[in-house]
Design brief:
Length: about 120
């Protein structure tokens, strides 16, 4: 549930940014999904988390222990669309996975963990 809260916070943030930029209604949903994927990939690469993740105390790590790199974050971001397109089943898979991995985590070889307290945004 905490992962869903982090995602909702990130969606609100992206929604506010896109509303401030302004876009036509027809392109809004596509722009939102693309912006969310780009935001996620960049934040995962730079901080291993998003702003929603920071607020909720979450961090994305690779299963092999290596640092997040561009191929991994790109695959994870694009795989989120797969998790979403099947009625969100890829996200609900967290409830059934022993490792608490969504489909995009399994595909990218990542897992979401609780971050130590005191991580700053910068």
């Amino acid at each position: 549930m905490i992962r869903m809260a982090a995602l909702i916070l990130d969606c609100i943030l992206i929604g506010i940014v896109l509303a401030c930029i302004g876009s036509d209604q027809d392109a809004a949903s596509n722009a939102f999904l693309i912006a969310l994927a780009l935001y996620g990939a960049v934040m995962w690469k730079i901080r291993s988390t998003t702003i929603g993740g920071i607020i909720c105390g979450l961090k994305v790590v690779r299963l092999d222990g290596n640092a997040m790199d561009w191929p991994t974050v790109t695959v994870r971001a694009l795989s989120c669309f797969l998790s979403l397109v099947v009625a969100g089943l890829g996200f609900f898979w967290i409830l059934f996975s022993r490792e608490r991995q969504a489909w995009h985590d399994k595909i990218a070889g990542t897992v979401v963990v609780y971050a130590p307290k005191g991580n700053s945004l910068v």
